[in-house]
Amino acid sequence: MDCIKWYEIVPKGSYRVRRNCAGCGKKTWYQNTHCFRINANGTKLDVWLIYQCEVCGHTYNLTVWERVRASAIGSDYERYQSNDPILAEQYGNDRAFFERNRAEIESRREYDIKEVKEEQKIELFQEIIQKRNDLDNQKKLLCYYNPALLPVRVDKLLAELFGKSRAWIQKAGKSGDMVISEGFAGKLMVVLVSEHLLEYLFADKE
Question: What pTM was computed for the model?
Fold first, then answer.
């Protein structure tokens, strides 16, 4: 079973939060400032990620850590202090983080599809593919990694990749030339494509 293409679904920016804004007097969208706030109370620390109203700038703190010792935070403590943008973006794309804060986030996200030039050394990929015994060995694999668990429509994703209509993708699925296996640990989607269809698709893109 060959995986001939690897793709990653990369979100554009962070999730926005919808909440009542005291400054605007109504519900507005809040965006990630990529800044953290740290408060020390004796030996315990609180850490928040700061979001900001897109209209008036009113801020909203989402809890990252609550009443913990600095030793429990570990090496990330310095990253919070320096407002590490990569760490802030990780939290800004973590749906579980917003669920813990009971924050309402947007349901639709813009994203890019990036081809992985070199096979990523991610154990998750290999373990899942090896454990599946229902994958058709006569087909080739296209693998999609969705680390942010973005809610994407599979037919729309494939239509964008191949430059085809969603109806064309759905027809290929009904004919058996394309089989979609979703839900691998929530972050991996595998698409099985017959060799003759794959040649047609990629030849058409060249």
Answer: 0.70
